[in-house]
Write a structure and sequence with these properties.
Layout (H helix, E strand, L loop, with lengths): L2 H12 L2 H4 L4 H16 L1 H15 L9 H20 L9 H28 L1 H6 L6 H27 L11 H26 L3 H14 L7 H8 L4 H6 L3 H13 L7 E3 L2 E3 L8 H26 L3 H4 L1
Antiparallel strand pairs: 1-2
Helix pairs in contact: 4-8, 5-6, 6-8, 6-9, 6-10, 6-13, 9-13, 9-14, 13-14
Length: 314
């Protein structure tokens, strides 16, 4: 660790975190006061989101088309090499829809966390010059990620309609539930990591590594039935696996859009039952949402405690 990083770590350790996450009225009041400040600056938030989108594709010939190119290339790689060459698609009907559903929701979460983590440092010039609620910067990164998600969502829905697999059923309610859980946890991590990244710049690089590990720990290129078969008699591992709220959200998203996974099929004269889903998903999703809201409260209180030193550290 360099001398500068060591000094930042020492100053970070000296800050009184216990005050920020206490359960007293002051902490609760401070949380809602921050929300009121953000609402008061909502026009500025909108401008920052627009600036984020424009700067990302500045001087680019294809512009916003790049928000589609990366996930489509990923889809091609996973579908051809993992699905066809390695045979992952054999037990997964409509593998392309299954994979692209997971990639679409995962892309939303990954972008919120990655761009949110770097948002305070990358906007250091503004933070030094004017006063504004600093939470706006991670939220602006979230708004930009939502825009890209909606673009990819349109492509996903068009593909589902073209293949005649649009799920007209109550299962569609799983889609907003999955998106909500991802947004809640994405914002919570973006807030706390963006604050910590000001003091410890290695955080943003650590996030990249952790996100890579989390990608393969989520059911994106393999189905829940694969997870169930892999653990066999150690069913307690399924509970551990579902502790990851993002994995749970992706399963809900797939359950809502991947119609083939909920249908009985006939393969080679044999009747194949629908893909299994975790038991009591409704309660699991509700729990993930409630705990996520608590995580946002704690993350914002930590952020609030650290933001007083942002200008001098940047």
């Amino acid at each position: 660790m360099t001398d500068v990083a060591q000094q930042r770590a020492e100053r970070l350790a000296e800050l009184p975190f216990e005050v920020s996450v206490s359960a007293g009225p002051k902490s609760v009041g401070g949380f809602f006061a921050s929300i009121r400040e953000i609402v008061k600056h909502r026009e500025l938030l909108d401008l920052l989101i627009r600036r984020e989108l424009k700067s990302r594709y500045k001087d680019s010939t294809l512009g916003f088309a790049w928000s589609l190119i990366k996930p489509l290339v990923q889809l091609l790689i996973y579908y051809v090499f993992i699905g066809q060459v390695l045979g992952a698609s054999r037990g997964v009907p409509d593998f392309a829809i299954f994979v692209f559903s997971g990639l679409t929701l995962w892309g939303l979460y990954a972008e919120i966390v990655a761009t949110g983590t770097a948002s305070i440092v990358s906007n250091g010039g503004l933070i030094k010059k004017i006063y504004l609620p600093r939470e706006i910067f991670p939220l602006a990164a979230t708004g930009s990620a939502i825009f890209n998600f909606l673009v990819q969502m349109v492509v996903l829905l068009l593909a589902i309609i073209v293949l005649g697999q649009f799920p007209v059923s109550w299962n569609l309610l799983w889609v907003p539930a999955g998106v909500a859980v991802v947004l809640i946890w994405g914002v919570a991590f973006a807030l706390v990591l963006s604050a910590l990244n000001v003091f410890l710049r290695d955080i943003q690089y650590l996030v990249e590594v952790v996100m890579l590990l989390m990608f393969w720990a989520s059911p994106i290129v393999y189905s829940w039935s694969f997870v169930v078969a892999a653990v066999k008699d150690h069913t307690w591992l399924l509970d551990v696996y579902l502790l990851n709220p993002v994995s749970l959200a992706i399963l809900a998203f797939q359950r809502g859009l991947w119609q083939a996974g909920s249908q009985t099929r006939v393969i080679g004269g044999n009747t194949v039952p629908p893909q299994p889903w975790p038991a009591h998903m409704e309660l699991l999703m509700l729990g993930a949402g409630i705990v996520g809201v608590v995580a946002i409260f704690i993350a914002q209180r930590i952020f609030s405690r650290l933001q007083g030193n942002f200008a001098q550290e940047i």
